[in-house]
Design a protein that fits this description.
141 residues; alpha+beta; two-stranded antiparallel ribbon; 7 helices; 11% strand; binds 2'-deoxyadenosine-5'-diphosphate; binds magnesium ion; metal-binding; Nucleoside_diP_kinase; nucleotide metabolism
Length: 141
């Protein structure tokens, strides 16, 4: 998910392009204003952290661009493309490393495990993702 800072800074196309060029398949995508309740549910694992309130207010401050991406090792591949959580420590060449400056506005969210991906897809895209074949898939795996 491209966070509000990424959308405001015009980085949606660049970020989608990086995932597409890597070979991941877009099976869901939408621009949306995140309701408070969805933001709190999404970040429930961080409920007790001191930054939780700021995180929820940031993610609801302006629209996000949410996606479902599919492919071999999609979760770890996407996390590698994203870079470390803190952009100050993310390697150049990664999305956060190239475009982020502070941990409070780190451009992008990505599921960190199969379990969190299943939970988040159900939360954000219940029944909305699209199943289809691409001719190029035979050249990717
Ligand atoms: P990630 O987004 O890489 O999965 P996370 O799940 O640990 O990282 O944290 C969720 C978001 O919370 C993260 O993208 C930015 C914010 N965050 C994490 N640690 C923080 C901290 N120490 N101070 C402020 N914001 C933080
Ligand atoms: Mg996380």
């Amino acid at each position: 998910m491209v966070k509000p800072d990424g959308v405001q800074r015009g980085l949606v196309g660049e970020i989608v392009s990086r995932f597409e060029k890597k070979g991941l398949k877009i099976v869901g995508a939408k621009l949306m204003q995140v309701p408070q309740s969805l933001a709190e549910e999404h970040y429930a694992e961080h409920k007790e952290r001191p930054f939780f309130k700021d995180l929820v207010s940031f993610i609801t401050s302006s629209p996000v661009f949410a996606m479902v991406l599919e492919g071999d090792n999609a979760i770890s591949v996407a996390r590698t493309l994203m870079g470390k959580t803190n952009p100050a420590e993310s390697a150049p060449g990664t999305i956060r490393g190239d475009y982020g400056l502070t941990i409070g506005m780190n451009i992008i969210h990505g599921s960190d495990s199969a379990e969190s991906a299943a939970r988040e897809i159900n939360l954000w895209f219940k029944g909305e993702s699209v199943s289809y074949d691409r001719a190029v898939d035979a050249w990717l795996a």
